[in-house]
Design goal:
Blueprint: E1 2-6, E2 12-18, H1 21-24, H2 30-44, H3 103-119, E3 123-126, H4 136-145, E4 153-157, H5 162-168, E5 174-178, H6 184-189, E6 192-196, H7 197-207
Parallel strand pairs: 1-3, 3-6, 4-5, 4-6
Antiparallel strand pairs: 1-2
Amino acid sequence: MELSVLNIKGQDTGKKVVLDDAIYGIEPNDHAIYLDVRLFLANQRQGTAKAKERSEVSGSTRKLGRQKGGGGARRGDINSPVLIGGGRVFGPKPRDYGFKLNKKVRQLARRSALSYKAQESAIIVVENFTLETPKTKDFIEIINNLKVDGKKSLFVLPGADKAVYLSARNLQRVNVMAAAALNTYKVLDADVLVLTEGAVEVVAQNLNK
């Protein structure tokens, strides 16, 4: 797949970039995408929910009533789960919601997501750029020049660029990330993918291993 390279003014530079068919032209695997997105969302969970069990509730351990003959369930002390204010049975505990997913499956999912974007003609390639100082106004101008204003866009840079990141931080529907951190969820969540020339190379290196 061949795309024209634009500059940040939205003008065609006359250069062309060829997107690798092994990354942007495969038959998407929806199940691999499902697993990778599920892993991403699971890793976003804090997993800090916690309820006190019977042994952790503050209260006397004195047995409240006789073992038999009371006409009700055995309840022991005041911390019993059958009493109001007692411990909780099988309550949540801090845990890690992540799970293992093979590297090849994760790579297949990212290739599939990128292939979907290519099929939708939702990929724009621009020259490598940076900003001298963080300035949201300058970044808005770039968005308008590329005609992606109003769309949820993901700008992928070859590496971390603090000035560009800070310039886009306050803009809704705009995300900026390094190519090495590109993931299936972010690709699918965006309406349009804006790749710099350097980012195309980094993505190719990472997904062709």
